[in-house]
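Researcher: Please predict.
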Amino acid sequence: MATSKVKRNPRADLTRKVLEQMKTHGPNWVKPWAGQIANGAHHNCVTGNVYTGGNTFLLWIAAEKNGFTDTRWSTYKGWESTDTPVPKGEKATAYVLTPMPTKLKDSNGNPKLDKNGNQKTGLFFRAVALWNAEQVGLDPVVSEVQERTQIERFEDIERFIANCGADIRVKPGSPHAYYKPIADYIVMPAPEDFIGDTPEKKLVKYYGTLFHEKGHWTGEKKRLNRPEIYERSRENYAFEELVAELTAIFMTADLGIEHTPAPDHAQYLASWIKALENDENLFFKAAGKAQKAAAFLHGLQPKNETQKILNEIAAEQAA
C-alpha cells in the first residue's frame, strides 16, 4: 500500500526524537545529524519545493537513520508521475506536515464569516508520507562544479555577515557572546578565543556562535519582533535560546560550515527538555520562528549574490 492507515503525528515524532538526542548526547544533541545537515536542502524533487522549519529536522533525522545521502524526496503519487515509481512493498521512511487550506466553521457546523460576510479560511496540517530518491533507485546527482576553498567559504560568510548590518562588537578575551536587545548590539569574543586545533576550526565555531546571536538579533522590535528576547522569565527565554540555536543550525547549513553548539548553551538544555516534554508542538514552533529568522537574514543580502552562494553550495553538496 502507498501509505499507512496508522494516524501519524510528525510533531510528536520529532519532539520524541529530539528529546532522545538531548538526553543521550547532551549539549552535542545536533552532532548525530551533522552529516545530514551538511548534505544541503532536502526538497521535493517533483515539485521543487524545499522543506522548511520542523520538516527540515524530520528529514535530517530520517535520512540519518536510514543512511540516505540524497536530499531528494517525494510522495507516492509524486514518484508515480516520474520514470522511477516507488517499488512494490517499499515503505515510506519519513512523514512531514503539509498545510492544507480549509474553510472554518463554528461549533454548529455553520460557516465562520469575516466582517465582509466572506467565509473565513485557515490551515489544517496533515501528515504526508515521503520516499527518498535512494528508495526508488534514482541516479545520484553528479556535479562538475569545482569545490570552493575554505578561504573562499569564509570570504562568502564575511560578506553575508557584513550585508546584515548588525552592530557586532568583538572583544578579545570576553568570556561570553551575547546580544543586548535594548542597545541592539552583539558582543563576540575574538575568533582566536574559541577552542580549536587550527585557526580555521576556531573560526568555524566563531561563525556558529555569531549566527546564534544573530538569531536573537532578528527578534528585535523593528525586525521580526519576538517578545521573548526581552523576557525575564527563564522559561520563555529558554524558548528564545532554542530559536536562536536552530537559527544558527539553519544558517551554518545554508552557508556550508559545521555547527557546534557553544558550551554555555548547555545551561538551557534542562529547560528545553522540560519544555519539550510538556509541549509536543514546541520544537515545531521554535523551528518555524528560526526559519523566519534565517529567511530574514537571507533577505538582507543582494539577491544575485545570495543566490550565487547558495547555488555553489548546493552544487558542491550534490557532488
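Model: Residues 10-135 form one domain.
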